[in-house]
Every structure is written in C-alpha cells, then in structure tokens.
Design brief:
The protein has about 350 residues and is mainly beta. The protein has 6 helices and 20 strands.
Length: about 350
C-alpha cells in the first residue's frame, strides 16, 4: 500500500478515441448450407431464419445474421399474398418502426428509396432484411465498406448473373434521419450513383441491411435467363421470387435467398476510448522506498554506510488511487526503473474502455 501520493494536474491527463476495423467476409458457401443445413436454424414461429458459421448445436458456433422478408400495407402484392400475410406485414412494420421515423400522424412509414423520408416518391414496399449479429458488426459497420453479391439469374442448380450491391460513396453522403443513427444507400453500380437508382439501405449502427426484393426481377436479369428462386434441392424451384413471396412462407423465401447469396463483405468498427495518465516522478519525488527493509536503525541500507551517496530507489509499480486513497488500478513496468535525485521519470499509463 502506498504511503506517498501525488495528485494529477489537468495537464497530466489526456483522452483519446481510436476506431479499430476488422474485415468481415461472409461467403455463400457457408450461408447456402455447407454443413448440410445444420448451421441454419428455423423457428416454430416462422418469422425469421438464423445463420451460423458452424452447426448451431455446436458450442463453437457463432451467430452470423438473421434473415427475413416483409411487405408493407402499400405493397401491390398484399392482395395476392395467401401465405403468412400477417407475419410478413408484421415483420415489415417491426423493422420499419425501428429504422424509419413515424410520420406526423404517428403512422409507420415505408423505406424511401432516396432516404429523404417524405410523402410521395418511390418506396421499398417489398423488402428482405439481413440483421447482422453484434459479434460481427461490433459498434457499427464502417461506411463505404459494405457490399453484397447475389446471383440473379439461372435455376437454383445453375446460378448465373452476379449482381453486386454496395454503399458506394457513403463515406461522405450517408443519411442521418433514422432513429437508429446513420445509414447509406445501396446501389448496383459505383458509376455516379443517384438516389433514384438505390436498391436498399444499410444501417451502420443498427447492423441491418434492407434490400428491395425486386433485385430479382427482370430489371436486373438477362430476359433470356430463367430465375429459379429456391433451394438447390428443388423444393422451391419456382420461376419467380414473386411466386415465393406471395405463395410460400418466410422460410422458403429465406432458403431461396441464401442459395443466391454469393458473398457479403464489410469492415466492422470498434470504438476504443482511452484515458492516458502521465505519472511524473520529479527530481525530489520517490527517491526513498517505504519497504521496511530499506532502513535499519534509522539508516538507509542502500547507502552502504556512505553518508555522501545519494539515495536510490527502484520503481516497479504504479497505483492509481481515488480521492479517498482507494486503489483503483495497478500498472507494472517491464523492469525496475532506477530513481535518484539526479533524474526524473515520466511513466505513461493508458486505460482502455
């Protein structure tokens, strides 16, 4: 326990903020069922599907993302949906009320294509949602790093026509009008993206990607190609994603979507806050030890009975104390540091949180 304390001054304490990034690749080989589908978890409620990097019953499995689909009240598909209409409506409303602000009357709004959140304009009324696990996106997804690639053509067993969608230009042109924070528009091309060509949003702090289901329509396909939207085992080998969306359940749509997923790539962000304490031992500080073996019969042993030798001590530990002298943190130096009246030391202690 320390017997001598020194109070920090204002210029002895500094704070810093550092952003750490990791590259997160999610390959289609995992999401399409590398482990015979044992890494894909379905639920009795049928509202969404979870994807893991290993069989989900394994203790080493990590949750990657949840996948689901929804339709808004304003969707043209609503009158023809005959399977899980209420669940698809509920999913859309649940996600929208979190990511999109309510209108002035307190109603849930659909996703604006241009992100302006206004009456009129194009809306994403039929959308699927990829909700990434916090383990992956950490504090947020790094702006300008998100991309996802789908196969938008061919049959389930012979996929073709890769379509890459990314938040091009989001580093400087992201939106801030969402209750959850910042988000970027997703485009199919980096060539001068315009708001009327956006096909989705990525919400950086929430870790959610919203994509219009129409990316699998003929707008993005070679008309000569057959788009079989389903699982490779042929269970949902249907000629149109619209058929799956209207006549099948959410699980069937998720199966078809996973089969057409080629790759997801983004960088996550961890915000590291640090407080740096500069512990200064000036020329007259800490030249003596409080260790009882340091003196004998009121004589300093290290002087070897030479009264003209200067006192000496060795610093091995730094303790940070509260105003009530309660020990809060301890730092160790790599090797003892010699301290005498003829030298000064400044030790830098950093606390990360």
């Amino acid at each position: 326990m320390a017997t001598t304390f020194k109070t920090f001054l204002n210029n002895d304490i500094a704070t810093t903020r550092t952003l750490l990034h990791e590259s997160i690749p999610i390959t289609g080989s995992i999401t399409s069922g590398t482990y015979s589908g044992n890494n894909i978890k379905n639920y009795a409620h049928g509202m969404f599907q979870s994807v893991y990097d290993y069989p989900y019953l394994s203790s080493s499995a990590n949750h990657i993302f949840d996948l689901t689909v929804g339709v808004s009240a304003g969707s043209s598909l609503t009158p023809v949906i005959d399977t899980q209409l209420s669940k698809k409506r509920n999913i859309f409303d649940q996600v929208a009320q979190v990511l999109v602000p309510y209108d002035i009357s307190g109603n849930i709004q659909a996703f604006d294509q241009d992100g302006k959140i206004q009456n009129g304009g194009n809306k994403f009324n039929d959308a699927f949602f990829i909700n990434f696990a916090r383990l992956l996106n950490k504090d947020e997804i790094k702006k300008g790093s998100f991309s996802v690639t789908f196969f938008t053509g061919g049959a389930p067993t012979a996929l073709s026509d890769q379509l890459t969608i990314a938040d091009y230009g989001a580093t400087s042109s992201f939106k801030v009008n969402s209750p959850t924070g910042e988000y970027g528009l997703l485009y199919t091309s980096s060539a001068a993206p315009e708001t009327d060509s956006a096909v989705g949003h990525v919400y950086y702090q929430a870790g959610i990607a919203v994509l219009t289901a129409s990316i699998f329509s003929n707008n993005y396909l070679d008309p000569s190609n057959f788009c079989g939207f389903g699982a490779p085992d042929g269970a949902y080998d249907i000629s149109s994603y619209l058929t799956v969306l209207t006549a099948s359940n959410i699980q069937a749509f998720a199966d078809g979507l996973r089969n057409r997923l080629y790759n997801i790539q983004f960088n996550n962000t961890t915000e590291l806050n640090s407080t740096i304490y500069f512990c200064r031992a000036n020329t007259g500080d800490y030249n003596y030890s409080s260790n009882p073996t340091y003196v004998s019969a009121s004589k300093i042993l290290v002087k070897a009975n030479m009264p003209f030798n200067e006192p000496v001590s060795y610093i091995t530990t730094i303790g940070l104390y509260s105003p009530q002298n309660e020990l809060l943190a301890v730092a160790k130096v790599s090797e003892p540091l010699k301290k005498t009246p003829s030298n000064e030391l400044t030790l830098r202690v950093r606390l990360d949180y």
